[in-house]
Design goal:
With about 475 residues, this protein is of the alpha+beta class. The chain is about 35% helix and about 25% strand. The longest helix is centred in the last third of the chain and has 26 residues. It is globular, with a radius of gyration of 25 Å. It binds one RNA strand of 76 nucleotides through helix 1, strand 11, strand 14, helix 10 and helix 11.
RNA sequence: CGGGGUGUAGCGCAGCUGGUAGCGCGCUUGGUUCGGGACCAAGAGGCCGGGAGUUCAAGUCUCCCCACUCCGACCA
């Protein structure tokens, strides 16, 4: 039976992927535009997703000894300017405070675009001895970057994130931290968000302003474009020197600590939308879904139905499932469509016929698969189905990634593959900026990363034919 | 920041060559329905994105802003 087009209908992703994405952001009630250009409001449902992400990630950070702090939102210009590369990278997109009340400030203050400078400034005051190292800090906050074009979750002028900042006694320890946090992100993406990633290192051109090395997890969206999922940076002692962060070492000499920073943002919500969503709306991995199970009583006016449905809800709640029941007067069809739009992983239906048979029906969001289960087996069945959704999402995303990663041996071939297939194109690379720029200019792709897991495709660079140094992934990025 | 598109009720839109605003959905109330986006009836809801101008008269014409959106350049 043909569904009539209604208000909540969204654009098909095959028709217009960008519009489809925007439709989901708004129709699933994740986000709303604020009154200042480029700023967004995270609505309760969107924020609930973020809270779940935060909670799980924060727990992982704490397992490895990190502690949370809160730094100020304003940075004096002079402080920001102490590290040249960072300033060059971020100054163009800073927002400034120039007035305090009615008085013009003597020095203007930047809204933090990132907080390396303030962590360094703080450490320069509180760090004394190697005995105090490492300092493993993190903060959950929002930052402001005055972007030119904005899109919900993917690029907005304010976004919410966590930024980890650590200092260590030795370079090796800091490098290990950088790698550990990269892996933490990769695990989070794969195990929680059900999005497979490619771990790798950014090129000189793509790395964070001021970093010695930037590592990334790259993921692939359903339109085969690339999204940088999270980054982890190794700074060496560059910032320590610039900000005068010192400590007395084991040898009683003054030393500079080695530093890292790593961040992940509300962009992850965008990644989830574009990695798992479909033409009926959002599809959420159970681990972060605000509502994991929606219970829909069928023919709820009939005696006993609501009671039976409520009982199921109470049992699932007691079993630790995030569950809701919808006993509103809306029709069954409306409710089904509504919770599909919102990406609820599992639906439980119970009506008079089910009650008579002592069963209920479970319907998975990701593939529409229905399972009839005996009422007394509810908890186990729900747990199992939620796991199947989580697994199903990962497998489908993994298939998308694997099937759209191609090897190319010349720039022309890379260009052709990108145009005809899309996705990640892997080639050998000489390491020269010139070739990277050429790839961008001629094939429209930027370098995504040099994967940690290398693969030897040949001896020479696909762009210039000179001896290759590394295998690299290219793609069209968000 | 360059190029395109769009701003009229909460949402989606109509409003031709100017005459003071309409439709569908949603919302409220009442009733009938209820296993995939139900139906009937009665309501409420608008400085037509903002500002200037032309005109007796502007949603409609002119100019300037602003916002959103898509495509590039730049960046999480």
């Amino acid at each position: 039976m043909a569904k009539e087009k209604k208000v909540e209908q969204i654009t098909d992703m095959e028709v217009d992927f960008a519009q489809w994405y925007t439709d989901i952001c708004r129709k699933a009630e994740l986000v709303e535009y604020a009154s200042v250009k480029g700023f967004t409001i995270l609505r309760p449902y969107g924020y609930a997703i973020w809270e779940n992400m935060q909670q799980l990630m924060d727990a992982e950070f704490k397992k490895t000894g990190h502690v949370n702090v809160a730094m100020p939102v304003l940075i004096p210009e002079s402080l920001l300017k102490k590290e040249g590369e960072l300033v060059n990278g971020f100054a163009p997109e800073c927002a400034w405070v120039t007035m305090g009340g009615n008085e013009e400030l003597e020095e203007r203050l930047a809204f933090r675009p990132t907080s390396e400078t303030m962590f360094c400034d703080h450490w320069s005051r509180v760090l004394h001895s190697y005995r105090e190292l490492p300092m493993l800090y993190n903060q959950w906050c929002s930052v402001i970057r005055w972007e030119k074009t904005t899109r919900p979750f993917l690029r907005s002028r304010e976004f919410w994130w966590q930024e980890g900042h650590t200092i260590h006694e030795t370079a090796e320890e800091a490098q290990a931290e950088t790698e550990q946090q990269l892996n933490c992100y990769a695990d989070f993406y794969e195990n929680v968000l059900a999005i497979p990633v490619v771990r790798g290192r950014k090129t000189e051109k793509e790395k964070f302003a001021g970093a010695e090395a930037t590592y990334t997890v790259e993921c692939m969206m359903k339109d085969r474009k690339a999204l940088q999922g999270a980054t982890s940076h190794y700074f060496g002692d560059k910032f320590s020197r610039a900000y005068g962060v010192t400590f007395t070492g084991r040898d009683n000499k003054l030393q500079y600590p080695f530093q890292t920073s790593w961040g992940s943002t509300t962009r992850m919500i965008g990644a989830v939308i574009m990695a798992h969503g479909d033409n009926n709306g959002l599809v959420l991995p159970p681990k972060i879904a605000p509502i994991q199970v929606i219970i829909l009583p069928v023919a709820q006016h009939k005696p006993g139905v609501l009671e039976a449905a409520s009982a199921l809800r109470d049992r699932l709640k007691a079993a630790g499932v995030r569950v809701q029941m919808d006993d509103s007067d809306n029709s069954m069809g409306w409710k089904c469509a509504q919770y599909e739009m919102k990406g609820v992983p599992l639906r439980v239906e119970i009506g008079p016929r089910d009650m008579e048979a002592g069963q209920c029906v479970l319907v998975r969001r990701n593939d529409g698969e229905k399972t009839v289960v005996a009422l007394d087996a509810l908890e186990a069945a729900v747990t199992e189905q939620l796991e199947l959704v989580q697994k199903g999402l990962y497998e489908k995303a993994k298939k998308n990634l694997d099937e759209h990663t191609y090897a190319a041996y010349s720039l022309e071939e890379a260009k052709e593959l990108q145009e005809q297939k899309g996705g990640f194109i892997k080639t050998m690379w000489c390491g020269e900026l010139e070739c990277e720029l050429k790839m961008k200019e001629q094939a429209g792709m930027s370098s995504r990363c040099m994967p940690l897991q290398q693969e030897k495709l040949g001896e020479v660079c696909a762009c210039c034919g000179k001896p290759a140094k590394t295998m690299i992934y290219w793609g069209v990025a968000y």
